[in-house]
Known about the structure:
Helix content: 25-40%
Strand order of the largest sheet: 3-2-1-4-5-6-7-8
CATH class of the largest domain: Alpha Beta
Number of helices: 11
Largest sheet: 8 strands, mixed
Distance between the termini: 28 Å
Structural class: alpha/beta
Number of strands: 13
Radius of gyration: 24 Å
Mean pLDDT: 89
Shape: elongated
CATH superfamily of the largest domain: NAD(P)-binding Rossmann-like Domain
Low-confidence stretches: 245-256
Amino acid sequence: MERYIRQLSLPEIDLLKQEKLSETCILMVGAGGLGSPALPYLAGAGIGHIIIADHDTVYASNLHRQTIYRSSQAGRNKAELAGAYLESLNPEIRVSTITEKLTEDNAGELLAAYDIDIILDGSDNFATKALLNTLSVTLNIPLITASVNQFAGQIGIFEGYDSDKACYRCLFPDFPSDARNCNEAGILGTSAGMIGMLQAHMTLLYLLDIDQEKPENFWNIDLKTLRIESFHTPKDSACSHCNHANKNTQNPTKGKTMVEMIGIDQLNDEDSVIIDVRQPEELLSDPLNNDLIKSAPVNIPLPELTGRLDELPADKRLAFVCAGNIRSAQAAEYLSAKGYENICVLDKFTI
């Protein structure tokens, strides 16, 4: 987990949440203006399985905004090129590609082999957005949809399978007949980049259960004035696309396990082993010096913990320590969730 150390340093992210990302399967439909900026960040964050669906090929006119592609790749399929890019970026994840256009007739067959946790809509047409909304509602899969045109973008999180939450068609029961795509209306490359990255950002917030505005809201972003507006999207009881949805049967979010914190004076050296989860260079600059510590601590940096559980003694109390009690608490909570019982956090500020 060394590559994820910077996000693991955030108090909102712990080993369990990082493991959740590694076990998550997302479907990104569209590897163009939105998908090409979103996908690298999702892969970099450690999403375990990314499915990319795009039947289109690279054109020279794409390159000012779809910067994961190169001039020499013109004419090649975007899904395959994006998949190769992500695999080189993060070899720890799995990438699958679908090079056929998703339709009502083939979507079920093409997606049947995958256990998808969330759908990302990076398409540029209402027909595909309507299809993805149908898949979201019928398969009980959250949908994060985005669109961008000229200097404007929109993003929404929809859980239309829930009887209390709107689907995409509650907001757009009728599609505009005069909508123009970027080929006709034009687009600034950075507009697509910012909306795509924001879609990736909202996806990670959603998956990691980090405080954010809820799926009932829809965001409209003006990238000329840098103004963001959000408005509530109530469920339309007359919506023919989702009003048959059952009550949400997803498991409620579980709270963190509370782990005991002890001071250095409570440490019983014969019964406890100190596990220092700091990086080796931190130990050199700030070693644990206290007369109450009789046995040398074991150094297992937090990103390495999941792969070194066999080094933890089963017959001792495990006292985790770090520089500020954050990483040590994450380590203890992770092991507690894994079934370990004789664990605690050693308060660094008492040493």
